[in-house]
Specification:
heterotrimer; A alpha+beta (151); B alpha+beta (776); C alpha+beta (285); A: 151 residues; alpha+beta; Ubiquitin-like (UB roll); DNA polymerase, domain 1; 2 domains; 36% helix; globular; C: 285 residues; Uridine Diphospho-n-acetylenolpyruvylglucosamine Reductase, domain 3; 5-stranded antiparallel sheet; 3-stranded parallel sheet; 12 helices; 13 strands
Chain lengths: 151, 776, 285
């Protein structure tokens, strides 16, 4: 069964009918073709599907599309052309914090949320922001170095 | 030495950071069907009946496929022991039993839940050591009849499908002469690759019996061959395309889900069928990794000289054998470590077990046996009362040594001693800031690695000059995060003497028009595809000179290629610009001289042979890489919790093409192996079902485990003659010695010897202050 | 992929109770971080999910005279970032800090954590040790009961077409508390064993341990010994003996063996005591 929801995604209003059992991640990827948000586990355990929901980073695989009715979502596609995104991109490139790139949009969203909270994150802030994200390629060193450049 | 031009960023960085990079699950087609797979709940069972009648009638269900639909489509790689869907029997929990195809995935799921299968559960075994016992259930009772592409020396009426023997010298004499014989058993359990992207494939058959497939594979050409063989069609009728992979690490090499996807799609011609694994399926229904028990019996003289070594290696290879034949071989001839030992007897067994099949995993055949060998050296040192460095250095392979395979080690194989000394020096200089309730340990391991692969595992490249003087290059090698395409751009730019922005590398692969490449495994792409590019460049320069000779009206041999121009060697004032002639030279009157410059390049490893069936020796390794690794750990005495303070590696890379990417590969490999060393282990219940097929209970390293870790990576550069500009592969080597480095560090910290991975908090704690053989 | 269900998000309690009355096969969803993971793995879903996130009455952290009331829908992030909680209940703050990961903490609620009643739940041991009470709201009334009564078995709480409304903790001056856990990795993980220790203004200790029994585990003898003895090595040997004899954690756990868990009870107890300054670094090992 489906019902219409009203939501703002990346500054754009959407009125869309979706099945109740559809996850936010499925809505983004399968209905709206926003494939920058990735599914790594479907269980909220890896962080690849991280998006901002009313400014807070959340795991879109364990949120229902209907839960974002009347709420606002920002995905990796919505970060482009923002100043923070350019900064994040610059430091990720400078440290080569990207290998296979599958977890990367999730990490970028986490860092964006971190910058929303504080302009000058300390070690504790960075640990909190990244702690729940998994990357199997980099060993994290380059990611940590990249984010520390923002300090 | 040539200066390799340095890129600012890897070529795919922007696309990956922005989320634009397309992975397999980001591709879909309008009339695409979702394939959902019903999987065996049993580790070993006969399928008595499958009832799909009702299910097939459900709304929206296009097709339900079972093993009954298989005629003779067999996955026949090294051993023809495997069908894309279980036929009559399931051999591991997670094995595909039926496939449902539907446009609506929820409909497919509903149908899947309603399929009834009747099983007769059989006794099972998940450990090689159990599976080799005489009364163990036979997983493939008719393996004698299987078609084999190479002689795997299987044992009839047993679960042993591969037996690799290595014999050098006289082992019994060595034991007689020894002052001490030290015997230990080491266990490296099965683990999972856990690429962040799970496996996926999309396939469509046309009515002309051609198949097009998009797949997350490291081995598009290999998949093509396997599928063509399975359907008895021409390879040219199978087109396999692959783009970015969300991690591979060997788990997307050979074949995994591609044959099943192709098989299912055949029943619905002209429709795309997508199979994308869930995380749980990636754990228990794709390739898994490692799973070796290693027994080492070492004859030593009291001065630390190793006189001989006897090894038995048992791989719990899973339900099907093809993907681990080479692993068994590699482990066999690497288990003596980077040491010269005159008397060797190795028996390495691939054993069928009721688990998902074991396949290649970063460094395959090496971390398993280095875990044993480098721990063994440490234990020998303790038992003889000698310094472990002294034993290693005394026995180390050096120029002139003969390795286990009978190959002579040359200076050009790399500076093992230098690497080892560098790591010891760095470990020594680290001062530890001691905290209460903690103990500290430093551990070291020496490593060697060679790729083990078919003797004809070729690579190739194509090169095309465009009108404007830019160059398009395509080459073998899948991009899965290792940065191969970036390195290839740098190699091509260096070889062509052209700036980086004039050289474009094609990132994706399509088997119908991309240059052939066997598989992207074994850390071989930098040197093999790199050499193929060098070959293409050599031919292109020759053609450019030919064009220039027509324009300048001189002999081709008198010309010199300088990148942007071709000059007359004797008189530099006489030249023509490359961009003027790369597409043929156009005179003012329209007359054209010369031809467009488009070339191809190939590379085939030279002189490789099969190993001798009796001695196991032969030229099986095309190159060697040596190095050393170290860790510094802090252990909480109250809990056994281990914190990694330092991790380091020195490796003889031959020539570093891109320092930033190379460091990333080494560190990434080390941290991946830290998972296997400390936390990762696939666990099975008494019914043979995998108990930890999710990140909830399969724990891989997290950012917080590494946030305070200091890394050191040292590159030595002893040029490798067969590598482009002297480069060797380095992408896997970070994994090889990490587990024993941890084991040795724990030994140094606590005085306990652990033999079985992973070295969990619990294991460390429960073994503290105990003595003796603690095989827990 | 979730199997189909119907989803409703009422904005007042009456509607919730009506839905609960009218439907047999119904589940309450708040943050969803536990429930949706379970549904994803299940062969079927309940017919109806009732989302209670819009119920304002179940939100917020308030201080009333000598007690602090935490609405069931309070997210773990809100708990972690509450100055009130950080000032008064270290153990709650520490548990919130180690719970899941940041993204999960932004969704998960303390009510959900309590109601799911997992043996190693972060908040189980803490709220038991703090002797918390819960408010349960039904169609007719609001009941108040000790959490120890409310949460009575693995995955079982006393709710009968009712909702957990809030959690109430008495705040006493000079109360000290601490929380510690053992995990396999430092990032997102579950506790293999966890512990909460409270020392009240009368120097009485209360200790609870998670993932060693079906519900948070306490042994009076341990608390008495702590309250009445010198905290020295010999005492911990004694406590270890009591623990060894009185608990038998599940032997089939994937995460840790009974033997290890028993030892960790005492190790974590020592870490908690050290945290609140009751023992020094001289007691270890």
């Amino acid at each position: 069964m489906a019902k219409t929801i009203n939501t703002i995604i990346n500054n754009e209003k959407h009125e869309i009918e979706v099945p109740y059992q559809m996850s936010l991640l499925e809505l983004l990827r399968e209905e709206l073709n926003m494939t920058g948000t990735k599914e790594g586990c479907g269980n909220g355990e890896c962080g690849a599907c991280t998006v901002l929901l009313d400014d807070l980073p959340v795991r879109s695989c364990i949120i229902l599309a209907h839960e974002i009715d009347q709420k606002e979502v920002v995905t990796i596609e919505g970060l482009k052309n923002t100043g923070d995104y350019e900064k994040i991109k610059e430091v990720f490139m400078a440290e080569d914090a990207v290998q296979c790139g599958f977890c990367t949009p999730g990490f970028v969203m986490a860092v964006k949320a971190l910058l929303n909270r504080t302009k000058y994150p300390n070690d504790q802030d960075i640990k909190e922001a990244l702690g729940g994200h998994l990357c199997r390629c980099t060993g994290y060193e380059a990611i940590h170095k990249a984010v520390k450049r923002l300090v | 030495m040539v200066d390799i031009p340095q890129v600012e960023n890897r070529i795919d960085a922007n696309k990956k950071i922005s989320g634009e990079a397309e992975f397999i699950d980001d591709i879909s087609f309008s009339n695409m069907l979702h394939a959902l797979v019903l999987r065996s709940p049993h580790a070993h069972a006969e399928i008595l009946a499958i009832d799909i009648n009702e299910v097939q009638k459900l709304e929206g269900i296009e097709k339900v496929i079972t093993g009954r639909d298989i005629k003779d489509e067999i996955i026949n790689i090294d051993i023809g022991d495997h069908y894309p869907l279980a036929v009559d029997k399931v051999r591991f929990e997670g094995e595909p039993v039926a496939v449902v195809l539907a446009q609506d995935k929820w409909q497919a799921k509903k149908a899947l839940n309603s399929i009834k299968v009747e099983y007769n559960v059989l006794p099972h075994t998940v450990k090689a050591r159990e599976a080799i016992k005489e009364d163990s259930p036979l997983i493939h009772p008719d393996q004698d009849q299987y078609n084999r592409h190479l002689d795997t020396n299987h044992h009839p009426n047993s679960n042993i499908f591969r037996h690799y023997k290595l014999r050098k010298g006289n082992i019994e004499k060595a034991f007689k002469k020894a002052d001490k014989v030290i015997e230990n058993r080491f266990d490296y359990p099965q683990r999972s690759h856990t690429q962040m992207e799970t496996h996926g494939a999309i396939a469509k058959w046309t009515s002309d019996q051609e198949m097009i497939m998009y797949a997350s594979t490291q081995s598009p050409f290999f998949v093509r061959t396997a599928i063509a063989d399975m359907f008895k069609v021409k390879a040219t009728d199978i087109i396999v395309k692959s783009g970015y992979l969300g991690g591979g690490f060997g788990g997307k090499s050979d074949v995994s889900i591609e044959p099943l996807t192709a098989f299912a799609a055949r029943f619905v011609p002209n429709k795309y069928v997508k199979l994308k694994l869930t995380r749980e399926e990636a754990f228990n229904a794709s390739l898994i990794a490692r799973g070796a028990e290693v027994e080492l019996k070492t004859a030593v003289r009291k001065d630390g000289k190793i006189l001989g070594e006897k090894a038995k290696i048992y791989f719990s290879s899973g339900a099907y054998g093809s993907t681990s034949v080479h692993i068994v071989t590699a482990a066999g001839h690497n288990c003596t470590g980077p040491y010269e030992i005159d008397n060797i007897e190795v028996d390495s067994y691939g054993v069928y077990t009721n688990t998902p099949p074991v396949g290649a995993f970063r460094g395959y055949g090496h971390p398993e046996v280095h875990w044993a060998k480098e721990r063994q050296i440490h234990i020998i040192a303790n038992e003889l009362g000698l310094d472990e460095d002294e034993i290693r250095i005394k026995n180390m392979l050096k120029p002139g040594s003969i390795n286990a395979l009978g190959q002579k080690i040359e200076k050009e194989n790399g500076d093992l001693l230098g690497c080892y000394k560098k790591i010891r020096e760095r470990l020594d200089e680290i001062e530890i800031n001691q905290k209460p309730h903690k103990v500290y340990g430093k551990g070291i391991a020496a490593i060697m690695k060679s790729p083990v692969m078919p003797t004809n595992s070729a690579a190739s490249a194509t090169l095309r000059f465009n009108e404007e003087g830019t160059v398009d290059i395509a080459c073998s090698g899948s991009e899965m995060g290792q940065g191969t395409k970036t390195a290839m751009q740098q190699i091509a730019s260096a070889a062509l003497k052209l700036p980086l922005d004039k050289v474009k590398i094609k990132e994706d692969i399509s088997t119908d028009n991309s240059p052939y490449g066997w598989q992207t495994i074994g850390s071989t792409t930098t040197w093999k595809a790199g050499r193929a590019i060098m070959d293409a460049v050599r031919k292109a320069i020759d053609k450019l000179k030919e064009n220039a000779s027509l324009v300048l009206d001189v002999n081709k041999e008198d010309l010199e290629y300088r990148g942007n121009k071709i000059v007359l060697s004797e008189n530099e004032d006489l030249f023509v610009n490359t961009d003027q002639i790369c597409f043929g030279y156009l005179h003012d009157n329209g007359l054209v001289k010369g031809e467009p410059v488009q070339t191809y390049g190939t590379y085939m490893p030279k002189g490789l042979t099969y190993t001798d069936p009796k001695t196991g020796q032969g030229n099986a390794a095309a190159e060697w890489t040596f190095g050393a690794q170290g860790v510094v750990v802090e252990i909480d005495k109250e809990t056994g919790e281990l914190k990694l303070l330092n991790m380091m590696m020195a490796i003889d890379a031959g020539k570093v093409i891109n320092p930033k990417l190379a460091r990333g590969q080494v560190i990434g490999g080390m941290v991946q192996e830290m998972g296997g060393a400390l936390t990762e282990e696939l666990r099975y219940g008494k019914d043979g079902q995998m108990r930890n097929n999710s990140f909830t209970d399969y724990k891989i390293p997290t950012p917080l485990d590494l946030y305070d870790t200091d890394f050191d990576v040292y590159f030595f550069e002893t040029p490798e003659p067969i590598g482009p500009f002297g480069a060797r592969g380095i992408a896997e080597h970070g994994t090889v010695g990490i587990a024993p480095a941890f084991g040795n560090a724990i030994s140094n910290a606590l005085g306990i010897e652990l033999f079985k991975l992973p070295l969990s908090n619990q294991k460390i704690f429960l073994n503290m202050n105990k003595e003796g053989d603690l095989y827990v | 992929m979730f199997n189909p269900f119907v989803y409703k998000r009422p904005n007042n309690l009456e509607q919730v109770f009506t839905l609960l009355d009218q439907n047999e096969d119904v589940k309450i969803i708040a943050g969803g971080t536990d429930l949706l993971v379970k549904l994803r793995e299940a062969d079927r879903s309940p017919e109806l999910l009732v989302d209670i996130k819009d119920l304002e009455k179940l939100k917020g952290i308030k201080k009333n005279k000598n007690e602090i009331k935490i609405g069931a829908l309070t997210t773990i992030t809100e708990i972690k970032e509450s100055k009130l909680i950080k000032d008064e209940f270290d153990a709650l703050y520490q548990a919130a800090s180690q719970f899941g990961c940041y993204e999960i903490r932004n969704r998960a609620t303390i009510g959900g954590n309590v109601v799911h009643a997992s043996p190693g739940a972060e908040f189980g041991v803490v709220l038991f040790a703090l002797n918390a009470e819960v408010e349960v709201v039904g169609k007719r009334d609001v009941k108040r009961m000790p959490i120890k009564e409310f949460l009575y078995d693995v995955g079982s709480v006393k709710l009968n077409n009712e909702l957990l409304k809030s959690i109430i903790i008495k705040n006493k001056p000079d109360l000290k508390s601490s929380y510690h856990r053992i995990s396999r990795v430092k990032g997102m993980d579950l506790a293999l064993v966890n512990a909460a220790l409270v020392k009240d203004d009368k120097a009485q200790y209360t200790s609870y341990f998670g993932a060693v029994a079906r519900t948070p585990y306490n042994n009076n003898k341990v608390d008495e010994l702590l309250s009445q003895s010198n905290l020295n090595k010999a005492l911990f040997v004694k406590i270890q003996k009591i623990v060894d004899e009185s608990i038998s954690p599940r032997a089939t756990s994937l995460r840790a063996s009974p033997e290890y868990k028993k030892k960790m009870v005492v190790s974590l107890l020592k870490k908690c005591l050290r945290d609140i300054g009751e023992i020094g670094d001289d007691i270890d090992g």
